[in-house]
C-alpha cells in the first residue's frame, strides 16, 4: 500500500488497485434486465458501460433497454398484479416489506461499496444511504395495515369509500442517491399494493440491479421489474405507456416537465420530485463554528449532488466575515479523494459530463465578476487527475439573477449573499423557480419560525440540514415538484379512491 511519501503515480496506482479489488468483490454478475422474476437480455441485445467516476474505468456492461423491453416489463407487472399481488393481504405485504429491509441490512456492506464505486460518494455516506433504504421499507411495513376507508349512512343510502392500488406503476430515478431513491419509490408503491417497473439512471444502474437480485428470493415474480437504459430510450416509452396507471419520477425539472407531458397522453397520475436551489439563512446571533458546520454539510454532503442542497447562503452582515473565514478554513480541511477511504469527505462527481457542466457554471460566474473565496476548478493534485473531481467552491459577488445562482449546478458550489434588511433578503431567497427546501440558523425561536414560514419551500430545517425522517413528508413547492414522499401521504399517491354507493331501499 502506498503512503503519502510515495510518488503521485504510486498513489494513483494504489487507488486503481483498491477500486479493481472492490469491483471484483461487489459488482453484480447479472447486469441484464430484471423482468418477471428473471434476469433477461434486452430484445436488441445492446449494452452500455457504467463508469467508476473515481478512476473513469468501466465498471460493468449493462443491458440497454428500449421500448420492446419496457412493454415486456409492463406486461409482466400486470400479470403479477392480476394473478398474485392483488390477492396479498396488507399483512402479507407487511411481512414482505420487512423481509426486504432485512435483506438490505444483511447485505449492507456490499451495497454501500457498490454505490461508492458506481456513484463516487464517500463510503461513510453510502452506508447512511443503505441504512436509510432499509428504514424506508420498515416504515411502510409499519403503516401498511392502516388502510381504513370510510362509510356513510344516510336514509337508505349506504356509502363506502375505499382505496385501491393503481395496478402497475412506472418509477424513474436519478443517479445521486441510486439505492435510496429506489427504496423511496419501491417501498410505498409495494405497500399500497402495486407492481412496478423501475428505471434507474444510466450513470448508476448497479445497486438497483443488485437489489433486484436480492429481492428475487423475497418478492413474487413480476412484482418488481427493473429496466436499465437511457432516458429517451427506456424512460420515455415507460412514462408514456398506456398501461401504466401512475408515473413517479425523481430527477431534473427539465426532464420532469417532459415526463408530465408524456403522462398527459394517457391522463396518468404523476408525482414529481425535482430540482432545487435552496437558501440557507443565517441570523446575526449564531454560534459561528456551529453555523459553519451546518452550512458546510448543507452544501457539500454527497459532493453537492443533493436535490435539497443548501446552495445559496444568505448570511447577516454582522457575522458574515467570521462565517466566511470559517467556511474557507473548513474547505481547507476537507479530505478530497478516494471515496472508498474512510477519511474522505468529498469524492468525485458522478461523471465527466457533470464535471464539465459544473466548470461551465464556474467560468460564467468568474466572467460575471464572481469572487472565488475558495475552489473554482478541478483540484490541483495529480492523484485525482483521472477522476471526476471538482474543488469545493465558495463564490461571492454574483448578481442574484445570474444563471449560476438561479439554476441548479448540482455540485460543490456555494454562492454567498450578505444581508441586513430581512424583507429584502427574503425576497431574494424566494426569487428562484425552485422551492424544495431551506435552512434557517438562529437560536431566536421567533425569528426562526418567521423565516421558516416565509421561505417558499416544502421542507425547512431549523438548526440542522439534510436530516430526513420517515413520517415527515418531503417534496417541493413551485417547480421543485408535485406530491410528497417519505410519509403516510405517499401511500395515497399510489392509490385511487373508489366510492361504492349502495341503496338499501
Ligand atoms: P435527469 O432528469 O437527467 O434524469 C433522471 C432520470 O430520468 C434518469 O433515470 C434518466 O434516464 C431519466 N430520463 C431522462 N430523460 C428522460 C425522458 N425523456 N423520459 C423519461 N425519463 C427520462 O436527472 P439526473 O441528472 O439523473 O438527477 C439529478 C436531478 O435529480 C437533479 O435535478 C436533482 O435535484 C434531482 N433530484 C431530486 C430529488 C427530490 O427528491 N426532489 C431527489 C434526488 C434528485
TrEMBL record:
Pfam family, one: Aldedh
UniProt record similarity statement: Belongs to the aldehyde dehydrogenase family.
Name of this protein: Aldehyde dehydrogenase (Acceptor)
UniProt keywords, alphabetically: Oxidoreductase
GO function term, MF aspect, one: oxidoreductase activity, acting on the aldehyde or oxo group of donors, NAD or NADP as acceptor
Classification lineage: Archaea, Methanobacteriati, Methanobacteriota, Stenosarchaea group, Halobacteria
Catalytic residues (UniProt): 273
PROSITE patterns found in the cross-reference section: ALDEHYDE_DEHYDR_GLU
Subunit-level organization: Homotetramer.
Every Aldehyde dehydrogenase domain range: 40-500
Amino acid at each position: 500500500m502506498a503512503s503519502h511519501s510515495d510518488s503521485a503515480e504510486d498513489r494513483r496506482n494504489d487507488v486503481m488497485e483498491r477500486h479493481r479489488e472492490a469491483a471484483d468483490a461487489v459488482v453484480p454478475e447479472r447486469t441484464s434486465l430484471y423482468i418477471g422474476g428473471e434476469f433477461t437480455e434486452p430484445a436488441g441485445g445492446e449494452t452500455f458501460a457504467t463508469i467508476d467516476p473515481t478512476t473513469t474505468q468501466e465498471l460493468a456492461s449493462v443491458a440497454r433497454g428500449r421500448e420492446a423491453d419496457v412493454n415486456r416489463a409492463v406486461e409482466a407487472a400486470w400479470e403479477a398484479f392480476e394473478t398474485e399481488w392483488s390477492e396479498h393481504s396488507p399483512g402479507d405485504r407487511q411481512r414482505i416489506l420487512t423481509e426486504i429491509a432485512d435483506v438490505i441490512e444483511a447485505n449492507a456492506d456490499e451495497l454501500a461499496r457498490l454505490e461508492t464505486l458506481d456513484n463516487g460518494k464517500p463510503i461513510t455516506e453510502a452506508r447512511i444511504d443503505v441504512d436509510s433504504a432499509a428504514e424506508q421499507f420498515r416504515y411502510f411495513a409499519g403503516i401498511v395495515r392502516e388502510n381504513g376507508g370510510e362509510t356513510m349512512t344516510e336514509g337508505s343510502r349506504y356509502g363506502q369509500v375505499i382505496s385501491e392500488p393503481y395496478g402497475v406503476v412506472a418509477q424513474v430515478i436519478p443517479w445521486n442517491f441510486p439505492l435510496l431513491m429506489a427504496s423511496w419509490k419501491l417501498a410505498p408503491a409495494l405497500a399500497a399494493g402495486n407492481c412496478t417497473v423501475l428505471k434507474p439512471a444510466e450513470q448508476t444502474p448497479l445497486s438497483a440491479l443488485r437489489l433486484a437480485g436480492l429481492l428475487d428470493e423475497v418478492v413474487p415474480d413480476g412484482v418488481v421489474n427493473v429496466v436499465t437504459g437511457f432516458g429517451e430510450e427506456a424512460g420515455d416509452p415507460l412514462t408514456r405507456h398506456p398501461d401504466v396507471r401512475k408515473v413517479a419520477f425523481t430527477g431534473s425539472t427539465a426532464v420532469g416537465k417532459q415526463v408530465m407531458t408524456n403522462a398527459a397522453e394517457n391522463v396518468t397520475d404523476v408525482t414529481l420530485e425535482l430540482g432545487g436551489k435552496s437558501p440557507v439563512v443565517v441570523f446575526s446571533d449564531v454560534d459561528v463554528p456551529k453555523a459553519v458546520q451546518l452550512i458546510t454539510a448543507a452544501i457539500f454532503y454527497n459532493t453537492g449532488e443533493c436535490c435539497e442542497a443548501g446552495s445559496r447562503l444568505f448570511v447577516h452582515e454582522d457575522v458574515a466575515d467570521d462565517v466566511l473565514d470559517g467556511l474557507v478554513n473548513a474547505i481547507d480541511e476537507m479530505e478530497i479523494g478516494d471515496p472508498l477511504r474512510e477519511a474522505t469527505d468529498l469524492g468525485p462527481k458522478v461523471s465527466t459530463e457533470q464535471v464539465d457542466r459544473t466548470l461551465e457554471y464556474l467560468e460564467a460566474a468568474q466572467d460575471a465578476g464572481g469572487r472565488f473565496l475558495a475552489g473554482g476548478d478541478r483540484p490541483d493534485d495529480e492523484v485525482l487527475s483521472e477522476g471526476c473531481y471538482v474543488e469545493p467552491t465558495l463564490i461571492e459577488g454574483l448578481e442574484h439573477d445570474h444563471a449560476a445562482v438561479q439554476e441548479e449546478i448540482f455540485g460543490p458550489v456555494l454562492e454567498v449573499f450578505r444581508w441586513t434588511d430581512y424583507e429584502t433578503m427574503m425576497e431574494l431567497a424566494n426569487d428562484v423557480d425552485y422551492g424544495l427546501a431551506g435552512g434557517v440558523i438562529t437560536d431566536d425561536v421567533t425569528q426562526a419560525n418567521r423565516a421558516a414560514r416565509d421561505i417558499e419551500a416544502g421542507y425547512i430545517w431549523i438548526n440542522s440540514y439534510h436530516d430526513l425522517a420517515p413520517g415527515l413528508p418531503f417534496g417541493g413547492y413551485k417547480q421543485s415538484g408535485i406530491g410528497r414522499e417519505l410519509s403516510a401521504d405517499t401511500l395515497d399517491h399510489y392509490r385511487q379512491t373508489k366510492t361504492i354507493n349502495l341503496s338499501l331501499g
